[in-house]
């Protein structure tokens, strides 16, 4: 019963907006030109959509926060409006939270903690945080909300069913990107709801950056770490967007602080491949001595080495205006669907080069403006932005916004270029572009190429050379033939229905029968013309990492 009522509520809340967006493209959903809307109309719709999402609860609030940084999927003003959604919901009662603590730790909270404050420090969508004392030290106790796992699993199940029909009826790169984001979220939110994973992430960061004196994370009390309870050191510091007094008094250097934060995010992305996936001012504290504390490691993005290498190769290809190199890298990163030809995407690669050239030429371009132009290109062309770059761009825009807050003349691009120069040797070494590593890679590739050529010539001499068709091409041909067969069958059924209806009408003279039969025939004929030309893979089959009622211990 709960599933049915929740499904009805979600459909009732979101269906009007889905229909409205579809009518923006075609007046009658499948037919006609798009309906012209004024900017004011879109603004009002964005405000209504934001309120509707807020009323649907934690799953959709967190999804909206992710989508608020995906300008390659949604245009303005929707991005700005859903970006105002805060990950704050009414807190659960202290008694319910204490029952979770007792269930996880095996004893009442008063036996574990010397003091446990009933009023929460923060109440987010998935958990809430209470201050306490443990062995004479101030700590924070992060507790998973009761019942949130079942709610998230049910909402994701409903979301994937909606996306399945959208993929089936309206296959385009925006719907595919939308599905990819929800799919990735379904994996990440599972990690975020297991606090043992967050503790592991914190330990990994501490081990990786133990040599850096200006970067740290809260100390975790491992003896109290459970799936639904996480106890950490209470960190004292100032949010990074509230440092005016420290900068003005000279107790803290603005440039040193920005270099520290920018450097650690660049290192996470391109050197260590372990990126903080929730960058916002509330998760970055600065102590009086300039030490930066990174909080909330529930969601991280692991960037494989091959991805870092490909990103660097694309950046280098943009620098030398190598169109083929850019397109090859975009294919490798999964930014382009295999069904899209190189010719279609060439103009998009040219546009990306133009944007970068403008940014390099003027010297006044802001990171936010550059990222917005890149996102607009992805929104216009059939491109899907990799999630690793989304979070990195999001961090870059955040850092530039913080710098601009303190210094109106702050040049984000110039600043980031300087930090990149400082990390140049590390980036080249870890991505295999260091001179010695690069020479070894080139030598290995040359040897592999020579072996392949020798094998190819040998096969040709022995008349063993064969040309194979890629399985994807065979599948496309099979889908095309199946589609044509369905259309032929539907046409036969439509014709037969019309003929049988006419014969029966002559016999019994029933106008209702004639009208019903001809309408059924017309429907079949319409279906022939609007049957989708290809069916996308069912996201329900592999994308759901959470199932309603599933519990993990």
Helices and strands, with pairings:
Layout: H1 2-25, H2 39-55, H3 58-67, H4 78-82, H5 94-105, H6 109-112, E1 115-116, E2 122-123, E3 127-134, E4 137-144, H7 148-169, H8 173-192, H9 195-208, E5 215-216, E6 229-233, E7 238-239, H10 244-249, H11 254-272, E8 274-276, E9 284-286, E10 292-294, E11 300-302, H12 305-319, H13 323-332, H14 342-362, H15 367-380, H16 387-406, H17 412-422, H18 424-430, H19 435-461, H20 471-508, H21 511-530
Helix pairs in contact: 7-8, 11-16, 11-17, 12-13, 14-15, 20-21
Question: What would you say this structure looks like, in words?
Answer:
The chain has 553 residues and is of the alpha+beta class. The protein folds into four domains: 2-88 and 154-191, no CATH class; 89-153 and 192-235, Phosphorylase Kinase, domain 1 (2-Layer Sandwich); 236-430, no CATH class; 484-541. It is 61% helix and 7% strand. The protein has helices spanning 2-25, 39-55, 58-67, 78-82, 94-105, 109-112, 148-169, 173-192, 195-208, 244-249, 254-272, 305-319, 323-332, 342-362, 367-380, 387-406, 412-422, 424-430, 435-461, 471-508, 511-530; strands at 115-116, 122-123, 127-134, 137-144, 215-216, 229-233, 238-239, 274-276, 284-286, 292-294, 300-302. The strands form three sheets. Strands 1, 2, 3, 4 and 6 form a five-stranded antiparallel sheet that branches. Strands 5-10-9-7 form a four-stranded mixed sheet, with helices on one face. Helix 11 runs antiparallel to helix 16 (387-406) and helix 12 (305-319) runs antiparallel to helix 13. The radius of gyration is 28 Å and the shape is globular. Mean pLDDT is 80; it is low at 533-553.
């Amino acid at each position: 019963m709960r599933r049915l009522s929740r499904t009805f509520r979600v459909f009732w809340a979101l269906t009007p907006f889905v229909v409205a967006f579809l009518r923006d493209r075609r007046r009658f959903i499948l037919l006609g030109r798009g309906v012209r809307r004024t900017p004011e109309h879109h603004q009002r719709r964005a405000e209504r959509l934001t309120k509707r999402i807020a009323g649907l609860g934690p799953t959709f609030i967190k999804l909206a926060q992710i989508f608020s940084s995906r300008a390659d999927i949604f245009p303005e003003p929707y991005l700005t409006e859903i970006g105002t959604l805060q990950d704050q919901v009414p807190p659960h009662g202290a008694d319910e939270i204490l029952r979770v603590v007792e269930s996880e730790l095996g004893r009442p909270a008063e036996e574990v903690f010397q003091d446990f404050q009933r009023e929460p420090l923060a109440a987010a969508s998935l958990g809430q945080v209470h201050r306490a004392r443990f062995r004479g030290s101030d700590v924070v106790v992060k507790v998973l909300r009761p019942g949130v796992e079942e709610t998230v699993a049910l909402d994701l199940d409903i979301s994937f069913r909606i996306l399945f029909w959208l993929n089936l009826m309206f296959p385009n790169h925006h719907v595919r990107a939308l599905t990819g984001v929800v799919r990735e979220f379904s994996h990440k939110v599972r990690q975020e709801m297991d606090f043992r994973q967050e503790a592991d992430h914190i330990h990994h960061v501490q081990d990786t950056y133990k040599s850096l004196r200006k970067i740290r994370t809260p100390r975790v009390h491992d003896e109290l770490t459970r799936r639904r309870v996480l106890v950490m050191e209470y960190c004292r510091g100032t949010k990074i967007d509230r440092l005016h007094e420290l900068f003005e008094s000279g107790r803290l250097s603005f440039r040193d602080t920005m270099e520290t934060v920018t450097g650690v995010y660049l290192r996470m992305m391109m050197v260590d491949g372990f990126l903080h996936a929730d960058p916002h001012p509330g998760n970055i504290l600065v102590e009086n001595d300039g030490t930066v504390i990174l909080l909330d490691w529930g969601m991280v993005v692991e960037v494989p080495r091959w991805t870092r290498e490909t990103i660097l190769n694309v950046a280098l290809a943009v620098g030398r205006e190598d169109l083929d190199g850019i397109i090859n890298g975009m294919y490798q990163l999964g930014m382009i669907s295999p069904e899209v030809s190189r010719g279609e995407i060439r103009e998009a690669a040219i546009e990306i080069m133009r944007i970068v050239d403008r940014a390099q030429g003027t010297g006044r371009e802001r990171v936010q403006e550059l990222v917005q132009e890149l996102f607009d290109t992805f929104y216009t062309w059939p491109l899907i932005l990799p999630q690793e770059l989304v979070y990195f761009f999001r961090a870059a825009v955040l850092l530039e916004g913080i710098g601009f807050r303190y210094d109106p003349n702050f040049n984000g691009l110039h600043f980031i270029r300087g930090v990149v120069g400082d990390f140049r040797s590390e980036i080249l070494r870890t991505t295999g572009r260091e001179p010695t590593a690069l020479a070894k890679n080139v030598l290995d590739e040359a040897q592999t190429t020579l072996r392949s050529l020798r094998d190819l010539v040998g096969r040709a001499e022995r008349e063993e050379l064969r040309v194979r068709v890629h399985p994807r091409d065979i599948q496309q041909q099979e889908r095309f033939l199946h589609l044509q067969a369905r259309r032929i069958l539907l046409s036969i059924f439509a014709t037969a229905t019309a003929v049988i209806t006419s014969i029966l009408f002559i016999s019994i003279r029933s106008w209702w029968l004639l009208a019903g039969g001809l309408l059924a025939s017309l429907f079949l004929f319409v279906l022939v013309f609007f049957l989708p030309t290809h069916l996308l893979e069912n996201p329900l089959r592999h994308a759901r990492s959470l199932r309603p009622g599933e519990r993990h211990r």
